[in-house]
């Protein structure tokens, strides 16, 4: 019985108990992309549950593409990615079963290794390289030396790059960056020389990425740990944006248009949702504008108001503070001198205080207190070249007078333009 069929039986049983297995999904096998199993998943009691049949593999002499067959628990255990994922709980005997003989020991010793030789395991499904990194970083476990050696084999790296779908790679990176120790995950990837494999490159990119120093990305990910007023949603965006900091000034061409390279990595390289892609691109774009205000116009209400209206990452998540923190991270990781770091931090604290004192925190959501038609009627003017400048001046008046009324704005408008 395959996983999807069993999931339907489970759902039928739960229905008889006035429960249900929600969102049952069938996930087809795709051997060309190293997805050899048909599986299913369902949602119950706040958890996603995977349904997978026990299996083993046989190979013919002419091909290394495996033939999947139903297997025993022991056969299945030795084909798992890592030993701690090869443990079974027998619901008939209420006992834990460790068919590899290593899983329980490795849990106790906080150790990640594969049941079989890593080269065999990774050749079967190269994505398992990333899975070992994800589990090691999430649990803060040590990786075995033979995993590191196998991960550096050129043929396995090429298989990861060309045989595994970008969506599966993106899913693993997403889980690494939202895990407990994202820096450790990036350090593992860097030590295995895998960053240039997982970061996909368009043909039209106008630089050689082999020259990049990924230490900036790794270091920058340390800082979000210290700032947890953010929800998981914001923290996830912040970590993706920090991870991609080294690429923020590079563009590629698509249909004769220039786009941010971060857009390509998020959308094509990791195949993440458009909302996430757009948010990261805007966050990256905001950095230079924030840094400019920090060092030139930190006490200027109008400059700060313009900044907030441009950096509230509308319409995705509506929060300028994520942009502010990313800009701070960018400056801190590129400033070696400790005293200068302290000065930079003071300036960002001052900007945050000014935004609060000036009552501009939600300025990104404001509508002009007078619309264009109303403003022109007050001035007895027809639409023309000056209209845009007039509307901009009204917006700036609001920054200077956040509690001002429409009548006060009308009086100011007449005094200024008549």
From TrEMBL:
**What domain of life?**
Eukaryota
GO BP of this protein: tRNA 3'-terminal CCA addition
**Residue intervals of the tRNA nucleotidyltransferase/poly(A) polymerase RNA and SrmB- binding domain:** 141-203
The Swiss-Prot or TrEMBL record annotates one GO molecular function as:
RNA binding
Matches recorded under Pfam families: PolyA_pol, PolyA_pol_RNAbd
Q: InterPro entries, per this entry?
A: NT_sf, PolA_pol_head_dom, PolyA_RNA-bd
Query: What residue stretches are annotated with the Poly A polymerase head domain?
Result: 27-113
Listed A to Z, the keywords are: Nucleotide-binding, RNA-binding, Transferase
Keyword Metal-binding included in the entry's annotation:
no
Family listed: Belongs to the tRNA nucleotidyltransferase/poly(A) polymerase family.
How is this protein named in the record? Poly A polymerase C-terminal region-like protein
- According to its UniProt entry, this protein's organism is Piromyces finnis
